[in-house]
Design brief:
This protein is of the alpha+beta class. It is 30% helix and 23% strand. The chain has two domains: 13-219, Alpha-Beta Plaits, CATH 3.30.70; 225-318, no CATH class. Strands 1, 7, 8, 9, 10 and 11 form a six-stranded antiparallel beta sheet that branches. Strands 3-4-2-6-5 form a five-stranded antiparallel beta sheet. Strands 12-13 form a two-stranded antiparallel sheet. The longest helix has 38 residues, at 221-258. The chain starts with 29 loop residues before the first strand and ends with a helix.
């Protein structure tokens, strides 16, 4: 469950199943635009011994994994203060959960010993992100590279390496320069493990020397293209669903306005004595005029004219009335 939500607030786990969000990390080169404050100040994550630094998101759980079996497994690595498998409203496992250790160093040891297998399945552990990360649309990405903004004179690549090595092994670090050799004010740094990026994100804000730097996850170009395609597909799907809903609503309005069924009227409310068959699935004479109706809807420039357009769609009843009137 690499895309499952992995961040949580600091209230009781059992009362917060709806507040969960993901995190993760992958090779990248473009900073993620975060909706939170630029320097990411957080009273939750500043303390390295806080609950947030002792909490793990566990994805990819088997349906048969319970609170007890999860706790039994993670207790092998250190003392556990809380563990919970998240469930839906029917009590079925959602195949992910949260574990809180009493010592933050236990998480480091647990992550070093990946991969982990529980109940016949390889699980996907990540450090749980704080609630404010839920506002970041890219929080569920898994990347190994970070963007570092706010680079000023006096900060070089060596200083950046030295500072970030405490979070994990650094593969590469480079400050971006313009064609004249002047710094562009930002840099990229790559770790050998996505877990190091999680630790960096949890430890914000970052001060190197006397300089505040703004650290974000970096997204690879191919990942950005995939995200753009997914967003476009989602928008198209929503538009198609909306169009179908409008067609169905218009069809029912047409049917009830022209139905041979009797209706009881009470003020502005109209109640059918019996329910007619669905226009969208019924084959026969009741569908006469639907194509005409939809063509009018498609060519209408004003949605307020829909009911007026429907009023003039020919049906068997008003054809007969029209012919009598002409006689």
């Amino acid at each position: 469950m690499s895309n499952d939500l992995t961040s949580e607030s600091n209230d009781s786990l059992s009362n917060r199943q709806s507040n969960i969000v993901t995190t993760g990390i992958s090779d990248g080169a473009t900073p993620i635009k975060s909706k939170s404050r630029s320097m990411h100040h957080s009273s939750t994550t500043n303390d390295p011994n806080s609950e947030q630094h002792r909490k793990l998101f566990i994805g990819g759980l088997s349906f048969k994994t319970t609170d007890e079996t999860l706790k039994e497994y993670v207790t092998k690595f250190g003392e556990v203060s809380d563990s919970l498998v998240m469930k839906d409203q029917n009590g079925q496992s959602r195949c992910f959960g949260f574990v809180t250790f009493t010592d933050p160093q236990t998480i480091d040891e647990f992550m070093k010993q990946r991969p982990h297998t529980l109940d016949g399945r390889q699980i996907d552990p990540k450090r749980a992100m704080p609630r404010e990360e839920a506002n970041n649309d890219e929080v569920h990405l898994t990347v190994k590279k970070i963007f570092i903004g706010g680079i000023r004179d006096g900060l070089d690549e060596e200083a950046l390496r030295k500072y970030f090595e405490k979070f994990g092994h650094v593969n590469d670090c480079f400050i971006m320069h313009d064609k004249d050799g002047k710094t562009r004010g930002f840099a990229f740094l790559e770790f050998d493990d996505f877990d190091s990026v999680d630790k960096v994100i949890l430890s914000r804000p970052h001060i190197i020397g006397e300089h505040h730097v703004d650290v974000k996850k970096a997204v690879p170009k191919d990942q950005r293209q995939i995200q753009t395609q997914q967003q476009q597909q989602q928008q198209q799907l929503q538009q198609q669903q909306y169009a179908l809903q409008m067609q169905a609503a218009a069809a029912y309005q047409y049917y009830y306005n022209n139905s041979p069924y009797n209706f009881l009227t009470n003020g502005s409310c109209t109640f059918p004595i019996s329910s007619p068959p669905s226009l969208m699935t019924h084959n026969g004479t009741n569908n006469v005029g639907l194509d005409d109706m939809f063509s009018r809807l498609r060519t209408s420039n004003n949605n307020n004219n829909i009911s007026n357009s429907l009023r003039y769609i020919p049906t068997g009843n008003n054809r007969r009335q029209s012919s009598r009137g002409s006689q």
